[in-house]
Specification:
The protein has helices at about 5-25, 30-45, 85-90, 95-100, 105-120, 130, 145-150, 155-180, 190, 195-210, 280-285, 300-305, 315-325, 340-350, 360-365, 370-405, 410-440; strands at about 25, 50-55, 60-65, 75-80, 210, 225-230, 235-240, 245-250, 255-260, 270, 295-300, 330-335, 335-340. By secondary structure, the protein is mainly α.
């Protein structure tokens, strides 16, 4: 007799499925902050029962669907009244200050100013239900401790330092505008609009806004005005394995998202921020995606130059060719081995004196000689092995730091996950290079 065929068996199966379901996702819609947010959004024309906030074991906070969605179906439609844009700022108490300030501030600073002011207003803020569900802290590189940034791989480490400089300079350059708002506050504006407050607002906008192009206004600088904060919708997490269509619908005056795939009931609903590797995701959004198919490990120009032959009389000419043809950037190892760009750069560097005149053929992807192929693959293997050793060294350092710095555990865990994926990619890539070498020797 087959098991689980009767009513009792079906009930037992449902209990088993529910147990598995409840262990990796927990409904959060009963929490006060979400109740207040849904009520606030309903007053602005948004009333959706198909998506509920939940806590997921692997992705953290997100949205779970209470019904199945078919491919092409509308999964969320957020009315324009719910969106926080520069138009919101101009129609607020800050509008007159923004309009008369010269030179004009950027749309970004206008939004940052509004977020900081509304968070400071607390119970008096009309946007309090939304402010209350925004993250209190972020893990973008600009928020990481300096000792954590030093653990990042290149070029992410350099970009992280550049990001920090951008936010610091933004704060310094905005101080005079912040000072003009003193009459709105009882506290000193330097306290209200301090660096940490701007960092929080900048991260909120950088990580949570959707693209929405607005007409150019004279009261703003010429920087693109393309930001819109979308309450509730911004609870949707990223997955590199889904495709969606997202845009503001001029006819319905709503920001809408449609899924390109079938979504089963009671699962986390994802959107895709774009085909970004994990370094880009960490830089822009402060997280990484597990098993990200777009992830690669970058080979910096400095590492490449370490393996360029110093005694090669044509070395400078080769380096000049690489620079002229933009082959110093985006050199990578991936799950399918070294990239075409990396191998092309190495093949050019490995050209013998008697082969140098064929450098244009290298750029076209032609095979020059078995000697050149073998030499370039050997150097690729050496670079890959060097990156593996460096990654393992950093992972050992992270392991020790996690024992000694409990307060930095979250930041260390994030970088550790990035480095572990790098290690997997490099080890896979090294195996592929060895197989390629075996095939030609």
């Amino acid at each position: 007799m087959q098991k689980n065929r009767g009513r009792t068996g079906r009930k037992r199966q449902r209990r088993k499925q529910y147990s598995s379901f409840s262990s990796n996702r927990v409904n959060q819609s009963h929490k006060l902050e979400y109740i207040c947010l849904k009520k606030w959004l309903k007053e602005r024309g948004f009333n959706d029962s198909n998506l509920i906030p939940a806590q997921f074991s692997d992705t953290g906070r997100g949205l779970m669907n209470t019904k199945a969605f078919k491919a092409g179906e509308l999964i969320i439609s957020l009315p324009e009244k719910c969106l926080l844009t520069t138009g919101t700022v101009l129609s607020s108490y800050l509008g007159e200050y923004v309009a008369k300030w010269k030179p004009p501030i950027s749309p970004l600073i206008a939004l940052c100013t509004f977020l900081i002011a509304e968070r400071h207003a607390g119970e008096q803020s009309a946007w309090k239900p939304y402010i209350d569900v925004l993250p209190k802290t972020y893990t973008c590189p600009v928020c990481l401790e300096e000792e954590i940034v030093r653990l990042l791989p290149e070029p992410l480490r350099r970009k992280a330092q550049e990001q920090r400089t951008v936010v610091q300079e933004l704060h310094i350059s905005s101080k005079t505008f912040f000072s003009s708002l003193q009459s709105l506050f009882t506290e000193n504006v330097e306290t209200v609009f301090n660096y940490n407050a701007l960092q929080w607002a900048w991260c909120t906008i950088n990580t949570r806004t959707v693209y929405m192009k607005h007409s150019q206004r004279e009261c703003f600088s010429r920087e693109p005005d393309v930001y819109a904060l979308a309450p509730y919708l911004d609870l949707l997490n990223h997955s590199p394995n889904v495709q969606v269509k997202a845009a503001f619908n001029e006819r319905t005056r709503c920001y809408e998202i449609r899924t390109d795939s079938h979504c089963r009931r009671h699962e986390e609903l994802f959107i895709c921020y774009g085909p970004h590797d994990n370094q880009r995701l960490l830089l822009e959004y402060g997280f990484i995606a597990t098993n990200n198919p777009h992830s690669e490990v970058y080979v910096s120009a400095a590492i490449l130059l370490q393996h360029a032959f110093l005694a090669d009389k044509q070395r400078n000419m080769k380096l000049s060719i690489l620079k002229d043809h933009d082959l110093f950037e985006n050199l990578t190892f991936g799950r399918d081995g070294p990239s075409w760009r990396l191998l092309t750069a190495l093949k050019l560097l490995c050209l013998g004196a008697d082969e140098f005149t064929y450098w244009k053929k290298v750029l076209l992807g032609d095979i020059i000689s078995a000697r050149n192929e073998e030499k370039s693959l050997n150097i690729a293997a050496k670079i890959c092995l060097s990156l593996i050793e460096d990654t393992q060294h950093v992972l050992e350092k992270i392991f020790q730091m996690k024992k000694d710095n409990m307060n930095l555990e979250n930041q260390l865990t994030l970088v550790e996950a990035l480095r572990l994926e790098d290690l997997t990619i490099l080890q896979t890539s090294l195996g592929i290079v060895h197989n390629l070498l075996a095939a030609i020797t």
